[in-house]
């Protein structure tokens, strides 16, 4: 009974806290630009509004058009549930759960791309093509980072991997994972979430034809993914397992806030990279993770 | 001491990768200059006591590689009035991957070489080989004359790192002589760049292969 209760509370934490992050990012961006900006809770209002709206369906689209966002939302949430939350640990931990998390994220991406292709729109097909081709590079970086952590801790379950820090390669890993976070969540050097030019969009263009509750699921799923990657980054880099429970919780929250503010600052201070530069950036992130892996490997041997 | 030295060498190796990934000529020159300055600090870290000559050579290295040579290159770039994009023969992603592979190869090779016991823990040999490889890659993979000079500079930085291994037995005067040679070479290349630009209206060195008597 308590297990079910804990599960529900955990799910509620992820569901309710995630939309806060884009709000904070927008506030930071507005602050740097000298504007007042939308309220921090804007995404909650948007989601509530979208949830009450009807759905416009293309006659061309199969049920996959609705199933895509739904499956993707559930997959991202399931991946988030596998991730331990600092001192709270995880409700579900087993050998190799990290691989399941990576594949759940990949499933989410596949379903978003599938729903985008369902519309039969050339623009959305273009966005889907971009999304999956960048994913090839960013997934390589994530998997290398995960390998580093598992080598460091000698374990393949998330809760054991994430409690110590990443060791001497932590700085490399932090920069690499932060770049991946920006790429996976379509933030600025890779994609501009505010752009309205279909030719330059990646993620936003894939969801152009969604409306009502499916669009709400897509937007909420994106915010959960952002929270997931920030929590992963903070736990991978900082040795939360060595701190007391309250301190670890505080550090985790502070770390996630710091990552969010950093995303906002990157977004205000950098321009979007040209498309031909994006593979270079992602390769750099991958190489940083590879070097962190080598340091973990050699450090373990010596 | 070894920790600080390895950190500096790691920084120089990181700058190698930045040099391979950058797509703009001014930033490539800046990276080569920064690497020269990082290398200039190293003799001071290796030698504990501060001798007069050592200080002079370190200061001269930093001034030459960090200020004089980049200034010469920037002047050549300005007078030749070239556009700042590099057009690579080997693309940025492949050259970055090659550079990283070369770096790992250098670390592995350095571990296998029969080095003196005091050099086992340091990254000097690995950093030297990685820099030489990066320099070669830049020389081969970039078509503009000035970017090839930057490759040459990074290659020379690698040789300088090798020289640091022998800092106790080779007089620093030799290092000073190399530095002078380097500066003169860059000076001459600056003039050549200007001539290439006038003769061909471009700095693409591939045009030089069609020269006939």
Written overview of the protein:
- The complex is a heterodimer of chains A (302) and B (213).
- Chain A is mainly α and 302 residues long.
- Helices cover 71% and strands 0% of the residues of chain A.
- Chain A has one domain.
- In chain A, helix 10 packs across helix 11 (245-269).
- Chain B is mostly helical.
- Helix content of chain B is 75%, strand content 0%.
- The chains are: A mainly alpha (302), B mainly alpha (213).
- The A-B interface holds A 277, 279-280, 283-284, 287, 290-291, 294 and B 17, 21, 23, 92-93, 96-97, 100, 104, 107.
List keywords for this structure.
heterodimer, A: 302 residues, mainly alpha, 71% helix, globular, B: 213 residues, 7 helices
Structural class of chain A: mainly alpha
What is the alpha-carbon Rg of chain A in Å?
A: 19 Å
Helix content of chain B: over 70%
Instruction: Name the helix and strand elements of chain A from N-terminus to C-terminus, one letter apiece.
Output: HHHHHHHHHHHH
Q: How much of the polypeptide of chain A forms β-strand, as a percent range?
A: under 5%
Individual helix count of chain A: 12
Count of extended strands of chain A: 0
Number of domains of chain A: 1
**Amino-to-carboxy terminus distance of chain A:** 47 Å
Report the end-to-end length of chain B measured between terminal Cα atoms.
Answer: 56 Å
Strand content range of chain B: under 5%
Oligomeric description of these chains: heterodimer
Largest sheet of chain A: none
Mean pLDDT of chain B: 82
Structural class given helices, strands, pairing of chain B? mainly alpha
The biggest beta sheet of chain B is recorded as:
none
Give a concise summary.
The complex is a heterodimer of chains A (302) and B (213). Chain A has 302 residues and is an all-alpha fold.
């Amino acid at each position: 009974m308590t297990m079910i209760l804990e599960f529900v509370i955990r799910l509620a934490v992820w569901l309710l806290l995630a939309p806060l992050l884009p709000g904070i990012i927008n506030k930071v961006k507005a602050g740097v630009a000298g504007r007042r900006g939308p309220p921090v809770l804007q995404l909650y209002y948007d989601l509530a509004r979208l949830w009450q709206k009807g759905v416009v369906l293309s006659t061309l689209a199969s049920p996959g058009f609705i199933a895509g966002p739904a499956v993707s939302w559930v997959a991202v949430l399931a991946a988030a549930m596998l991730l331990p939350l600092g001192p709270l640990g995880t409700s579900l931990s087993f050998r190799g759960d990290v691989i399941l998390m990576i594949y759940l994220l990949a499933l989410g991406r596949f379903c978003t791309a599938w729903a985008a292709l369902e519309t039969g729109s050339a623009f959305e097909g273009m966005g889907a093509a971009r999304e999956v081709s960048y994913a090839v590079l960013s997934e390589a970086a994530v998997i290398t980072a995960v390998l580093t952590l598992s080598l460091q801790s000698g374990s393949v379950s998330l809760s054991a991997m994430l409690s110590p820090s990443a060791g001497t390669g932590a700085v490399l890993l932090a920069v690499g994972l932060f770049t991946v976070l920006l790429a996976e969540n379509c933030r600025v050097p890779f994609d501009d979430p505010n752009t309205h030019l279909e030719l330059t969009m990646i993620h936003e263009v894939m969801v152009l034809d969604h409306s009502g509750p499916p669009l709400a699921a897509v937007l909420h799923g994106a915010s959960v993914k952002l929270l997931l990657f920030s929590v992963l980054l903070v736990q991978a880099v900082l040795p939360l397992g060595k701190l007391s429970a309250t301190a670890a919780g505080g550090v985790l929250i502070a770390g996630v806030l710091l990552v969010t503010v950093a995303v906002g600052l990157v977004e205000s201070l950098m321009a979007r990279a040209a498309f031909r530069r994006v593979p270079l950036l992602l390769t750099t992130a991958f190489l940083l993770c590879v070097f962190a892996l080598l340091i973990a490997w050699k450090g373990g041997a010596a | 001491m070894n920790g600080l030295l390895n950190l500096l060498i790691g920084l120089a190796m990181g700058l190698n990768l930045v040099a391979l990934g950058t797509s703009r000529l001014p930033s490539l020159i800046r990276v080569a200059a920064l690497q020269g300055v990082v290398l200039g600090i190293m003799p001071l870290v290796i030698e504990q006591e501060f001798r007069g000559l050592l200080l002079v050579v370190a200061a001269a290295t930093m001034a030459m590689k960090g200020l004089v040579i980049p200034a010469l290159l920037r002047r050549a770039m300005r007078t030749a009035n070239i556009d700042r994009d590099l057009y690579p023969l080997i693309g940025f992603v492949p050259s970055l991957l090659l550079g990283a592979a070369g770096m790992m190869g250098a670390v592995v090779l350095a571990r296998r070489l029969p080095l003196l016991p005091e050099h086992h823990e340091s990254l000097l040999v690995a950093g030297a080989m990685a820099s030489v490889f990066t320099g070669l890659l830049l020389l081969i993979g970039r078509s503009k004359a000035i970017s090839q000079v930057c490759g040459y500079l990074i290659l020379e930085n690698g040789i300088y790192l090798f020289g640091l291994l022998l800092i106790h037995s080779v007089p620093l005067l030799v290092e000073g002589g190399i530095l002078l040679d380097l500066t003169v070479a860059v000076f001459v290349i600056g003039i050549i760049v200007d001539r290439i630009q006038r003769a061909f209206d471009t700095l693409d060195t591939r045009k030089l292969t069609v020269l006939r008597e």
